[in-house]
């Protein structure tokens, strides 16, 4: 009798684990709210692809859009690169800064991506992954909208569209007045 009950113990014990896994596979990480929204953005300084320091803190007092991307992120990063450049050009005279953080990439591939899309906003490689970890990045692309006080106000997972960029930035610019 004891042997028979032990035979069923393992399958019964595995059921809660299987249920948890099934739930995890059904949850879309885009639907998980970021615990960072509403909190101060973590300061960082990286060396841009242009060889200059790229610091979040240098842009305090401005609305900042921080975009995490990678050259191997196809098609989403390729879809959003022109959107980010177009909106950077449209909003930079209004005090908005766009910063690109290239993660889990090779420097040459990142440079080629920047050249391919003629990106003029600052971009830097996150060589150790520290910045992406500090921001809780699940994957690329992910974009954080930071207000003039330095607080993360919104996070967008996936390719940013003109509508998303303009909605979030316009809201933060209106609040800054």
Index terms:
single chain, five-stranded mixed β-sheet, 40% helix, alpha/beta, 177 residues, Glutaredoxin, two-stranded antiparallel sheet
Question: What do these coordinates show?
Answer:
- The N and C termini lie far apart (76 Å).
- The strands form two sheets. A five-stranded mixed beta sheet has the order 5-4-3-6-7. A two-stranded antiparallel sheet has the order 1-2.
- The chain has one domain: 3-Layer(aba) Sandwich (Glutaredoxin).
- It contains five helices and seven strands.
- Helix content is 40%, strand content 19%.
- With 177 residues, it is α/β, with parallel strands linked by helices.
- Strand 1 and strand 2 form a beta hairpin.
